[in-house]
Amino acid sequence: MLIGKFSVIRWLLLLTWLSLPAHAGVHLYDGEQTQLLADNFAIQHEQSSPFTISDILKRRHEFIYQADNNPNYGFSDKGLWLYAELSNLSHNTDWVFSLNFSQLDTVDFYLVINNEVVSQSHQGKLQREQLYRVPTFNTSISIGEEAELFIRVQSDSSSLIAPIYVMSEAAEIRISQVDNLIWGLFYGGLFILAIYNLVLYFGSREPSLIAYVAYIVTVLVWQFVWGGHIDFFFPDSLSPLLSPYTSLIFSLIGISSGIFSLIFLETKANSPFMHPVVVAFLWLQAIMGLATLVDIFPPVWEHNLVYGIGMLSITSYIAAGFEAYGKHYKPARYFIFAWGILATGAIVGMLSLVGILPSNLLTTYCFQVAVFCEAGLFSIALMEKSRSQLENEVSQATDELRHNMELIEEQNARLDIARKDAIKASNVKSQFLANMSHEIRTPLNAILGFSKELTNLTLPVDKMEQVRIINTAADNLLTIVNDVLDFSKIEAGKLQINNQPFSPNSLIEEMVTIMSKSAHMKGLEFILELGPLPEKLIGDVFRIRQILNNLLSNALKFTSSGYIKLAVQGKALQHGIHELEIKIEDTGIGISRKDKNKLFSAFSQIDDALNRSYQGTGLGLVICQELVKLMRGQLTLKTTPGQGSIFTVVLRTNQLSQRYALSPLPEWLNKRVLIFDPHPQSRRASAQMMISLGARVYCVESIAHLQSLQEAFDYLFATLPTMKKASREQMLEALCVFNAGKRILWYSGDEPLTDFPAYTEDFEAQVRMPLTITKLEGIVHGNIKEKVSPQQSKLNTLPKARILAVDDMDMNLKLLDTWLADSPVQLTLSTSGQDSVNRCKNEEFDLILMDVQMPGMDGIQATRHIRKTPLNAGTPIIAVTAHAFKEEQERLLSSGMEDYLPKPIEFSTLITLIKRWCQGVDSSAMALPTLDWQLALKRANQNRDLAMELLREFIAHLPQAAEIIRSEWDARHYKGVQDEIHRLHGACCYTGVPKLQALANEMESALKLGNHYEVAEMLPTIILECEIAAAQADKFIQDNGAFNSH
Question: Where does it localize (predicted)?
Fold first, then answer.
């Protein structure tokens, strides 16, 4: 019976032993792998007093193994001994044991071989032998030798976590480098974020940025201490000072993060419920931080309280974030996400400290990873906040824009609903502006077109004044629309400069022609001071014209008496750059010093009184300033209240031509010109221009002085300004008898000879001031008054093209039909996209003007169908639309259309476009052959010798004729050009050069009509044809010289 009982006990002991985990010794093998020794250690806790290594060697039998491999041995202020048996089965003798946890107070390593301690090291954050960030023990074990490793760990403030790894020295070096790299990225990333946001703070003075920087700094300091780097870099200075106060530093992290949360979320406004809770936790963390200084609580309690209050604080921050996000504070979403990540990392770390989760690399450093991610997300949240503030500012500016747009909405109520629905965001705002542009420009196309067409008719005075009012109102409305669109492009950064060749002199004369008449109608003098400018420059002529128009219009608007002066001069710089300096001077109201800054602010005028007196959007000068900046220039202002202003624009362009327009000319060289002008500024400007042309100029300002002169003059330039309107008749009486070859009457305001027709025969011409190059050319060549209207002259130059115009609005088609009725163009009208496709199937056209927005089949769909028709697959199709944005233009051109014609359509733009795309349609001259021998024989009555002789004499004369034509044109001797072309045309009639004959005939007709612009375009063609004809005829004569022997 007793033997049976012992058998049962023996089997129970055997089963118990089998159920325990098998703990083998540590075998060291070759390779670069690291080995975690968590399940290889036996442990023994100290009870009262610390054990020495001698005591432990005697207590080997008391060590016990844990049931799991978690290297977290719980909280205890007593020491803990770890024991493992080692066997070196590798060819390596140098080994490293690393305890990857930096918060243990003491870590003592002992290597025992044959009951003797052969190597030992005393490390931990309170001991000075530690050379690395974490306790690391380097030792040697002979090949094939067995050893014992004893490790004692102790900490008053942290859980006893001892994840011990064994590795070769080579592996330890590699791991150390990777560790340094990772921590370098951690510190470097946070440091860069701190510096970046500190720089942003100095620029914006946003308080949440400096709070964020303070938070990052406290995180960096805490991690530098907690992570053990302070023991490595400052073992004897900072480490003893800061290492005992990790809890205090953690409290500072909580305080700085709480302050950041208050400022960033603006909790008083966005989280009123959680605001006092967050503030309370801030004070609680501050009190807890002070408590860590005086050691009120035991270390373990102290740490747990600090971390616990920190977690509750994080919870309050997250709750405040959710409350703010519920009030549509968008930056709070990144804030919530960031604190959520940190809270997750903190929870995982705490669960690891208390032993619920295993202690490994993930659980040990998850808090640091979460802090890094949180800091990055906070930076994104700050950017989101800045962007949100910018959106609010844009929204405020948009509200101001909406107020100004109400003037336009009153004229087109259909835009009201679209505007209110669209102006909610910047991209929707752009779409709204595009629709607004189309809807306003479309009716403006007809209003401006027909009203300007009425100005060509002879109407009663009161009716003409009504037409003028319509024109002015429509132009003002178009200006407002263009200003708003340009400002929108500038805000979006989409406004671009389109550089192309242009004539600065033509641009200046165009502006003078428009503005001088407006100034004279207001009783002002308009003065032009023009310096020598190249004939061709490269720049954005459209934008330069816009700047000039805006500044001159402002001068007209704010000047009630006196004068407006436009002064233009240029200066050649290095590398082909030509600097234009444009000054607009007026004698208007002027601007006070305090109001100057308002001029270049959007939607602003000087004060409310001016806003009522001089209506406007307040965008003009803002747009001018931005355009000048885009063209590498400057816009400056000098002004005196009550006396006037001077706007100076300096632009840099590229010089294309080396010839200057305002230079000495033969027709003016040494001519004696007397200038009579009572206005000193005007007189000085006129004299300067005539001197530049080579004339000998004399000036007088009074009739008495004029009558005292006895010598004769070639020209008398007699100026009758508006300010002398009351004494015009007395002046005319004295001027008409003055001894001069030609008397030219210059005037401002009403035409003097209309009021006093009796003096008409005494003057060669009557010309509106100021002097311009074109007006002076007209005086010399006797064509100051055009025989044909400028509009009709342009129409006469159009080819005989077949054009299809497609538009769903009858008034736009009617306008095109009115404009082109007296031209060679054959115009066909279509009112829908489908109708245009049907016409293109049966009829061939040379050009199609296609409206884009039409009901049913729109312009783009119609274009695609027309491209499939056999007759018009290659016909140029021009998009006609009121959409003003470049993106819309690019979309239309990419859809298969060749060009773009904006609404409202300008007459000159339409003519230029037709000539550009139909230039080969009516080129009967260009289609003719250069040399036609059969025609030459026919004209020589089939006499080959005579035909050859006439051809030889003709080509001998050609180079001289071409040179005379070129030189006479350069000297602006239009009569000489006409005479030489007439002789060339006559010579062509005796031989076989049909192409040159036709070109000479066309050019002679243009010269007779005074169409010098058309002549300028034809001149290079006829000169080139002279050279080609001479070359072909010379080769023909050489190849067929045998004719002379027969």
Answer: Cell membrane
